[in-house]
C-alpha cells in the first residue's frame, strides 16, 4: 500500500550543515558528511530551481547513519519523498526501523478533503500503524510515543499561516518535549520564501487556521519555523525541546529568493504550481461569499459567485468531488468571476506581496454587500477575521480603503516580525 503512493508524487537547535567531503560513518548527524553527487530526481524535476538544490530528505547520508538501531516514527504525507519514492519506503529499504507513521490534515495518503476528519489505519503491506493527527486527536499521545526513540517531520509546507501543517509541527514537537523523544526535521523549500506579508494574527482570533502571532506569509522554511516555535516558547506553557533533542537536516544550495516548483502536490486542492503561488492571496476569500474554485479541478486559480452574473463572462460550476471538496460553496450553481489560471505569478514575486486588488475588486462588484463577509450564509464560508487575523480587515474593505492604505496598517507588525525571526533563519 505504501508503494501505491509513489505516483502521488529553534533557537539553540542542532543545525546540520551541508558538506562537500566524502561520507563517513558516524553516531551523530551533527558530524555527518556528504558526498558530492548529482541532484536527486525530485530536484531534477524542478526546472525553475537552482541547479544543485537538495532537500533535507534527499541527503540521506546526513541522517540515516544516526537513525540506525533507533525506533523511528514519521510525520509524513504524499509530499514526503526521497528521490521518486515515498520517504517511508526509502528508509525501510535502507534498514531503518520505522515503527509508526503520523498523518496530518488530508491524511497520510493525501486523499481526504480539507477539514475532513481522518481515521487511524494499518498499512496492509508493511503492517505499520498509521495514526491520524486530524481526527480524534491533534498530537501524539503518551502511548503513541512510548515505543519511539526519534520522530521525523518530513512534510512540504507552503509558508502560509492558515495552511495547517505548521500547527501539526508544533503539536508533534510538543509531544516529543513532553515524552523525552528526539525530533528531527528534514527541511524543504518554501515556495513563498521571498514574501513576508499580511497582518500579524491577533490572539483573539486564534483558531484551527491560525495559531501563531505571525503574518499571512511568513517566508520561512519548516526547519526555520521549528526553531522559532521552540525559541519563542510557542508550545503549551512555554515548553521547549532541549538542544540535543532537536535536529534539523538543512537544505543544500537554497536561498529564500529561489523560485521553487513543488515536485509533488502538497494537498488535494493545491494541485498545480499556479494554485500554490496564488494560495496566499486567494485563501483569504474563504472568509467571503466568493468561491475560490473548490469543487472544480482548478481550485485556487479562479474566483466567482452566482450573483456576479452579468458582470463577468468567465464562469465555472462547483460540484462535489470526493477527496477534494464534497460540499463546496455554491455547489451546482454557475459562478461568474475571474480566471487567474494564466495570471503572471512573477508579478507576485516582484512585488513580494499578496494581491489585495482581487479582494477589493470582488467586493466592489458584488451586489449584496451585506452578504459578502456573512459566514452565516453557508457552512462552507469561514470567518474573515480568522483568515485575515485581525478585526480591521473587514472594515477596511467595506469602507473602500485602497490597497496602499490597508498595507500601511500592517507595516509596524511586519517590521517587528522580521526582527523577531532573525535568530531562527538558516538561509540567506
Describe what this molecule looks like in 3D.
Residues 28-44 have a biased composition (Low complexity). Keywords: Signal. Residues 277-427 form the Peptidoglycan beta-N-acetylmuramidase NamZ C-terminal domain. This protein is α/β, with parallel strands linked by helices and 428 residues long. It has two domains: 2-249, 3-Layer(aba) Sandwich (Rossmann fold); 273-390, no CATH class. The protein is built from twelve helices and 13 strands. The protein has helices spanning 41-44, 64-67, 87-93, 142-145, 165-179, 222-231, 273-282, 346-351, 357-365, 384-388, 392-398, 403-421, and strands at residues 14-16, 71-76, 81-82, 85-86, 97-103, 121-122, 129-132, 150-154, 182-186, 246-249, 302-305, 315-316, 335-339. Strand 8, helix 5 (165-179) and strand 9 form a beta-alpha-beta unit. Helix 5 packs across helix 6. The longest helix has 19 residues, at 403-421. The protein starts with 13 loop residues before the first strand and ends in a 7-residue tail after the last helix. Residues 1-28, 30-50 and 110-114 have low confidence and may be disordered.
Short description:
The chain has two domains: 2-249, Uncharacterised protein PF07075, DUF1343 (Rossmann fold, 3-Layer(aba) Sandwich), CATH 3.40.50; 273-390, no CATH class. The protein has twelve helices and 13 strands. It has helices at residues 41-44, 64-67, 87-93, 142-145, 165-179, 222-231, 273-282, 346-351, 357-365, 384-388, 392-398, 403-421; strands at 14-16, 71-76, 81-82, 85-86, 97-103, 121-122, 129-132, 150-154, 182-186, 246-249, 302-305, 315-316, 335-339.
Amino acid at each position: 500500500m505504501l508503494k501505491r503512493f509513489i505516483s502521488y508524487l529553534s533557537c539553540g537547535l542542532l543545525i546540520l550543515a551541508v558538506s562537500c567531503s566524502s561520507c563517513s560513518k558516524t553516531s551523530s548527524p551533527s558530524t555527518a558528511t556528504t558526498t558530492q553527487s548529482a541532484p536527486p530526481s525530485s530536484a531534477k524535476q524542478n526546472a525553475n530551481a537552482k541547479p544543485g538544490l537538495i532537500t533535507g530528505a534527499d541527503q540521506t547520508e546526513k541522517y540515516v547513519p544516526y537513525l540506525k538501531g533507533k525506533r523511528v516514527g514519521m510525520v509524513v504525507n504524499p509530499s514526503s519523498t526521497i528521490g521518486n519514492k515515498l520517504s517511508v519506503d526509502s528508509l525501510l529499504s535502507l534498514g531503518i526501523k520505522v515503527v509508526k507513521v503520523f498523518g496530518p490534515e488530508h491524511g497520510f495518503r493525501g486523499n481526504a478533503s480539507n477539514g475532513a476528519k481522518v481515521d487511524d489505519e494499518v498499512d496492509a503491506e508493511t503492517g505499520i500503524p498509521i495514526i491520524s493527527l486530524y481526527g480524534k486527536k491533534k498530537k501524539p499521545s503518551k502511548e503513541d510515543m512510548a515505543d519511539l526513540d526519534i520522530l521525523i517531520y518530513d512534510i512540504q509546507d507552503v509558508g502560509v499561516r492558515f495552511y495547517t501543517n505548521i500547527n501539526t509541527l508544533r503539536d508533534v514537537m510538543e509531544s516529543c518535549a513532553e515524552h523525552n523523544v528526539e525530533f528531527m526535521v528534514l527541511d524543504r523549500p518554501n515556495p513563498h520564501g521571498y514574501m513576508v506579508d499580511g497582518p500579524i494574527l491577533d490572539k483573539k482570533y486564534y483558531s484551527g487556521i491560525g495559531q501563531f502571532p505571525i503574518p499571512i506569509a511568513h517566508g520561512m522554511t519548516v526547519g526555520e519555523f521549528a526553531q522559532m516555535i521552540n525559541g519563542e516558547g510557542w508550545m503549551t506553557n512555554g515548553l521547549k525541546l532541549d538542544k540535543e533533542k532537536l535536529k534539523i537536516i538543512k537544505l543544500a544550495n537554497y536561498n529564500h529568493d529561489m523560485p521553487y516548483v513543488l515536485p509533488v502536490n502538497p494537498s488535494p486542492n493545491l494541485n498545480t504550481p499556479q494554485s500554490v503561488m496564488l494560495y496566499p492571496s486567494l485563501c483569504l476569500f474563504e472568509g467571503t461569499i466568493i468561491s475560490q474554485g473548490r469543487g472544480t479541478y482548478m481550485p485556487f486559480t479562479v474566483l466567482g459567485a452566482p450573483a456576479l452574473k452579468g458582470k463577468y463572462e468567465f464562469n465555472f460550476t462547483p460540484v462535489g468531488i470526493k477527496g477534494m471538496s464534497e460540499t463546496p460553496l455554491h455547489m451546482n450553481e454557475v459562478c461568474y468571476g475571474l480566471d487567474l489560471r494564466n495570471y503572471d505569478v512573477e508579478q507576485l514575486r516582484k512585488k513580494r506581496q499578496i494581491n489585495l486588488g482581487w479582494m477589493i475588486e470582488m467586493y466592489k462588484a458584488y451586489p449584496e454587500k451585506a452578504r459578502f463577509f456573512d459566514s452565516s450564509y453557508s457552512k462552507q464560508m469561514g470567518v474573515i477575521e480568522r483568515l485575515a487575523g485581525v478585526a480591521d480587515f473587514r472594515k477596511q474593505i467595506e469602507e473602500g480603503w485602497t490597497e496602499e492604505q490597508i498595507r500601511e496598517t500592517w507595516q509596524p507588525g511586519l517590521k517587528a516580525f522580521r526582527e523577531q525571526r532573525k535568530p531562527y533563519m538558516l538561509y540567506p
